[in-house]
Amino acid sequence: MTEPFPNPALSGQSIAQDDYLGHLLSSNNSRSNSRKASLAYGSINDNEPVLRRSRSLTESITNSMIVATNVTWEQIQRRRFLSVCVFGCLFIFLFNLIFLPRTSLDRDLRRLHGEFLTFDDCSRLFLTQLNFKNNVKSYMEFMERDVHLPGKNHEAAESFFKKNYQFRTYSDKYETWMGRPLKTHLKMYDGDKLVYEAKLKESELLSFHPYSANGTVNSEFVYLNYGLEHDYEAVRKAGVEVGGLIGIVRRGQISVDRKIKIAQEHGISAVLVYSDPYDDGQQRVKNGRKPFPSGPARKPSSVDKETVSFLAEQPGDPTTPGWSSTLFAHRVEPKTIPKIPSLPLSYEDIEPILKTLKGPDVGWHGDLDFSYSCGPSSYSLDLLNIVEYKIKPIYNIVNEIPGVIKDEELIIGASRDSIGGLGGVSGGHVAMMELARGFDELVKLGWKPLRTIKLISWDGSSYGLLGSTEFGEFYSTKLAKNNILYINLDKLNGSQVKIESHPLFNELLLKVMKQVMVNDKQTLHQYFTTSNSSMGLISTGMGDYSVFQNHLGIPSLNLGFSNNKDTDPVPYFNSLSDSLEWYTRLDPDLKFPNVMAQFAGLFVLHLSEKEILHVRTYDYVAAIHSRYKHIVDKVPSYWFDRICDDESNKRLGTKVDEMDTLFQILLKKSSSFDSNIKLLQKQILQDYPWFKLLTKIKIAIKIKVANLKVRSLDRLFVTDPVLIDRAWIRHLIFAPSRDSQHVCVLAGLEEPLRSADYDTFAANLKVVGDALTKLQRKL
Where is the Peptidase M28 domain (predicted)? Predict the structure, then answer.
């Protein structure tokens, strides 16, 4: 077709244009992307056609199509690259997310708080540190070298902890009412003639009984054996009146403060207390043993000293019963201290006095050179006891290792002081210092326990559990809310393992004993079973644990080594003879404090480093049930038909049946609760993928709830006082007996039954039932 206005100059090129167009269209399908771009923007290759300015409508349309096609391919290419990049990143992200390492809740919590030492790491390092080196001797030298009177030389103890351990160490001060002996004497007269005067000294310091009464007594004297009620009955049957006389008693059977109170009730004017070698088992001079320091028998001049404050009624400062002795505390007239004077003596001092006794034979025996008749003597004694009582400060030393969980804490404590200030080497304080060394090694490695741990050095324990009691009363609200357990490190004056346990922790104690080595061949558990050791219940007597267990309802343990009278050297209490020289006779390798430190420390690690508390509520309920059945079996049959004087108007027999049903429910619930705790412990250690985060959160909530239940369980048994004359003791289940020699379970039922007090028994049975009902709801 001919153009309407042909251009003569270009008319000869029409064929070339057609060839050009065909060439471009055909080459567009076969060239590479780079080639297409060259066509669109001009080529530098002379052999390729170049897009020129369009000279016709056809050429213009063709060039536009070519450019559009090239641009579209370029965009597609770019978008494909971006798509591949995005898809690749998304794929890598999803791949890593799906196949992320599975983690346990235990591991997550430690990472969250920056704690990378596991329980296995902590226990291994702790035991290795204490096994590798034994520092007990240096600690005993520290205890022996310094004078540790209540309120004195606390700076040395505080400085020791600050210098050697990386804990948060501070002193906790209380203002307590206590006495200091000014003058004592004991003289024996034959008429007006002085025939003998006792030394009354073991060292430069006077021997005395803390909280003994001031006074001067001049009277004849009588021998009363152990000072028990039946001893007074034997004297009465022998026709001897003891009123107004000075009584002489020997240690043993019951606590010294109980002896003084019984004497006071029988009208005795003053009491002398000594230790008779007859009560020392096989280690006696009469059996061929030499006295200390030459042998294991009792040293004739040694004086055992104990407080005479009535601890079974109320320990601590007697002027602040039930509240803490701070500087401006309200004070009352003390009612739990003796009204008669007393003195401690060595058997060397008392023997010349006892030799003068003549009278009827009442069947008593001993190792001293006299008849063991009750007397009375024709000689008289002049006794003087002048004690200055003032308000003086005492200082507990607190060593704190802050934990991740701020509202849960574990406390380990031991007594630091001694009556007379010297001795005390065999106390649990040495074991606590060794334990602190093991924990310090972990702290140096960056260890932060899950729960706060406190190591407390008690002051004033020898005078009447002053430091621990005032601490417990001052921090009662905080302790009742946060404290999980108190562990008391008791005396280490023998070779038999002594464990006074709360049933909640019996299983864990046995487990830990199997993990601690006494020597290369024997675990502590094996040693425990072969050394006639025993595991009893807490509250066998009064100790620094009493304010925690008996007053605040905080589960407690009392750990130590007790004396075997057949094989161990004779022990001493608050005596100068309680020395490093004596202890090396008992334990030449000084291993017992180190072993006890390992045992107590590893037990604490089990509780501080595990998210769920290792307890067995079934054991606790079973122990209460067993004792309850024993008490009910002794109830007189006619009591069951009597109507209880309360709003229920039920017979006692009906209430007993209801209690039996309640115990059966509790046993089942406690067993189920323990099974759930075991399951939670497994779930804590189980690894979960990331998308199971909600499951981990649910487990964490269950753990917190379970721990709260465990922590508050024993508080349910803290009630208004149910024990007559012992209002300070508020725990329904555990209480020391009145003689402070054995534990009394369900004392609120046991004591009224023994005294045939039906009304009190029935009232306390209701209180116990209400507490058990609360426990059943809690579980």
Answer: 396-565
